[in-house]
Every structure is written in structure tokens, then in C-alpha cells.
Amino acid sequence: MAPKNDGSAKRVMNKGAWTAEEDSKLSQYIEIHGAKRWKTIAAKSGLNRCGKSCRLRWLNYLRPNIKRGNISDEEEDLILRLHKLLGNRWSLIAGRLPGRTDNEIKNYWNSHLSKKINQKQKTQEVSTVQETTPQLKSQGMAPMKEEGAKIVGSSEPTFDVNEFFDFSAEGSSGLEWVNKFLELDEDQWFTDKR
DNA sequence: AACGAAGTCAACCGCTAATTT
DNA sequence: GAAATTAGCGGTTGACTTCGT
């Protein structure tokens, strides 16, 4: 679908890093008018930015109660466990970590955790293949290299969570089912960590 | 001190889903 | 119900910083 030509299409928007002045303008506008209708916010706040850019800036940096940096061990554990459960559903994972944004968690995963997991996975794969291959061969099956890799550190969960859980019935911050699942998973988790 | 490689993270892009007209 | 608009998501990029040589 083609966007309406409102006369602003040819206007060159600012890109790149936000300045303190831009942050201030955006914060002030949202404080008065609320964080709705980003296109309008972008147009009326005096920022030469697109609505998308304003929304991202607000959600990731300017909104209240944002935590920055220093992800604790507890938070890291939770991210690992939620990723194991949900895959790359960063916004859902972020919903369980107050003050954290999906972008931050995604970055943290890509720069820190994926490496940790790859290392762990490599060591596990060696032992798993050694243990399972003779048995699988005897059953006429190939070693499950791909499937095995999905257990930890893949971008997809090992099952379709939508088939198991009705996301439409859950608020983003009230995912009771996650806690239940994690409680169920707790024994296994601490067994893994020992 | 200088340089390149690797790591980090803010921001953009493309797409889909949800909502409004 | 269809079209248009808006919101939101995840993947990717690129500028900047840190580290190693």
C-alpha cells in the first residue's frame, strides 16, 4: 500500500544519533501530549525525525524507569531461560525484565550470551554425539545435529509456543504462564548449572 | 604511538499485525 | 469489508570504543 502524499514525503529527515536538544523536545512533547500517534509527535514536536525514530528513542532511552547497562546475574539467568523457552521474541523477554528494553536484551544476547552459549554448546555437542551416535546408528538414524543445536542458543524455540499458550489472553507484563513454566523448569535449570 | 581487529550498542530498515477510517 | 494508517517487532548496519600487536 502506498502512503498518502501529505507533502512531507520529500522532506529530508534527520538520521543518526540523537542530540540532547532533540531528546528534550521529544520528552517535553510526550509529557504534555502522551506517547501516542508517533507521526503526529514527530511532526508537531519540532523534530525533523520520522515517527518510527521518535518511538524508538522514547521506548529505548527516554521513557521513565529505564535501566541502563549492568545486567545482573539474575537478569542474565532469566534471559537465558526465557530465550530457551521463547526463542528470539525479544519483546516478550523484555516484558519479564522491568526497565529493560527489547533492543537492549537483543544486543546483550548477540554480543554476550550467544558466545557463551556457543561455547557451552560445542562442549555439549561433542559429548552428546559421542553418547548418542552408536545408539542412533543401531536404529538406522542419523545423529540429530540440527535439532540438538536448537536446544540451546537457537533463534527458535524447540516447540511452537503459540500452540501451547494463548498470547492474546496475556498482558505483556502479566505473563503468569512464564513464571509457572519457569517454576517447572527450575529443577532442571539448577541441575544444569551444578 | 599507530594501526587494524574485534566488540558494543544506538539506530535504521523492512515487514507484519493491529487499528482506524 | 476494504483500504489506509499506525504500532510494533526482529534483523541488520554502521559508528564508535576497546583491545592486542
UniProtKB/TrEMBL annotation:
It comes from the Eukaryota. CDD domains: SANT. The gene is LOC115736849. This is Myb-related protein 123. GO terms for molecular function: transcription cis-regulatory region binding. Residues 10-62, 63-113 form the Myb-like domain. InterPro entries: Homeodomain-like_sf (IPR009057), Myb_dom (IPR017930), Myb_TF_plants (IPR015495), SANT/Myb (IPR001005). One of its GO terms (cellular component) is nucleus. PANTHER family: MYB TRANSCRIPTION FACTOR, TRANSCRIPTION FACTOR MYB51-LIKE ISOFORM X1. Pfam families: Myb_DNA-binding. One of its GO terms (biological process) is regulation of DNA-templated transcription. It is found in: Nucleus. Residues 10-62, 63-117 form the HTH myb-type domain. Keywords: Activator, DNA-binding, Nucleus, Repeat, Transcription, Transcription regulation. Gene3D superfamilies: Homeodomain-like (1.10.10.60).
